[in-house]
Design brief:
Elements lengths: L5 E3 L4 H11 L3 E4 L3 H9 L11 E4 L9 E4 L2 E5 L4 H6 L1 H6 L1 H8 L4 H6 L2 H6 L5 H4 L40 H7 L3 E6 L2 E6 H4 L18 E8 L6 E8 L7 E12 L2 E10 L6 E2 L1 H7 L6 H11 L11 H16 L3
Parallel strand pairs: 1-3, 2-3
Antiparallel strand pairs: 4-5, 5-8, 6-7, 6-8, 9-10, 10-11, 11-12
Length: 332
């Protein structure tokens, strides 16, 4: 049977943090609740011991909702739904890569419930980890996905360190391309973390995928205006087009002058434990036209150092081709 827990529905961030602080590691934050519902529904071993005694829903905290425009860009509340993000006129017009990424998450029903904060902070999708195996990420000493006969077609190409899971957020690479910042509040106050530093790999802490610790809440995401209105590209490759997680996705924003790439930011996800900004690709294509030759160089640079596991080798070709298409796509 599912263990008992208390449900708290605070009306302010400070109230939520107070509850989280009281229960410490025995607390769990609910945003849209989709990822948490899956854990509860599976009734397997909870991913982080001990099992939470307190579920803290952020649903009723109004300050965590909404998209606000200012002179320095956008501030997006962590509880803003993905549908609101995908359809907001200014996001569509000025930050198209973000609107496109949010609009390709899962299905309309899930986008109506899922939140920006939940999408960027979601846990590993590895089925061994989620199936209750005592793997590295769950506190054990084995990676069940890293064997020749394992079901590992959705696992790492780059950055593996014992654990070979990948990050699955669609919105994260778009936010990295836009140089966004995550605002976190906890018992020690508020901190603003660049989105690239928000994620941590297994070499830093194998049991979590981001810097959030017990008692912390994402309050909003700041998207600076530096890359607003620039050319952009987002593409997501998945096994099923209906609602699936991405096998690989790519996001890019670029400035062109006289047909030459003057500046570009490009990020991918689904290939490593964290979303990756491909700075080597950016350096390789800056100063060149976004033509087929440049796209080919970008694709080959993107896969340098890739080390697929047994069944994930198809992702090498997929990553190469998506980066090539992104370079060509920013020219349109």
């Amino acid at each position: 049977m599912m263990p008992a827990f208390e449900l708290f529905q605070p009306s302010s961030v400070d109230e939520a943090i107070g509850v989280l602080r009281r229960y410490d590691k025995e607390s769990w934050v609910l945003a849209g609740g989709l990822d948490s519902l899956e854990w509860l529904k599976n009734r397997v071993e909870w991913p982080k011991a001990p099992y939470p005694r307190a579920m803290v829903s952020l649903e009723g905290i109004e300050e965590l909702r909404g998209i606000r425009s200012g002179p320095d860009g956008l501030e997006i509340g962590a509880m803003t739904t993905l549908s609101e993000l995908a359809e907001h006129p200014e996001v569509v017009d000025r930050y198209g890569v973000l609107a496109s990424a949010a609009g390709q998450v899962a299905s309309p029903q899930i986008r109506n419930q899922g939140t920006l904060g939940g999408n960027i902070a979601q846990d590993s999708r590895c089925w061994y980890y989620r199936g209750g195996f005592d793997c590295y990420r769950a506190g054990g000493n084995t990676c069940y996905a890293d064997t020749p006969t394992a079901m590992n077609h959705d696992h790492c190409l780059l950055g593996a360190d014992r654990c070979i899971t990948v990050n699955s957020s669609d919105v994260a690479p778009a936010l990295i391309a836009l140089d966004a910042r995550v605002v976190i509040r906890g018992p020690g106050g508020e901190d603003v973390v660049p989105i690239e530093r928000f994620y941590i790999g297994p070499g830093t802490d194998i049991t979590r995928m981001n810097v959030l610790e017990p008692g912390m809440v994402i309050t909003r995401v700041q998207v600076p205006g530096a890359w607003s209105g620039t050319r952009s590209y987002f593409e997501k490759a998945r096994h099923r087009q209906s609602w699936d997680f991405g096998a690989v996705n790519v996001a890019a924003v670029a400035r062109l002058s006289g047909g030459i790439i003057e500046g570009i930011r490009l990020a991918v996800n689904g290939v490593a434990p964290t979303p990756l900004r491909l700075t080597a690709v950016e350096e390789a294509v800056t100063g060149s036209p976004p033509d087929e030759e440049t796209a080919t160089i970008a694709g080959e640079t993107a896969i340098w150092g890739a080390r697929p596991v047994h069944y994930s080798d198809y992702k090498v070709t997929l990553l190469r081709n998506l980066v090539r298409r992104a370079i060509r796509g920013v020219a349109v």
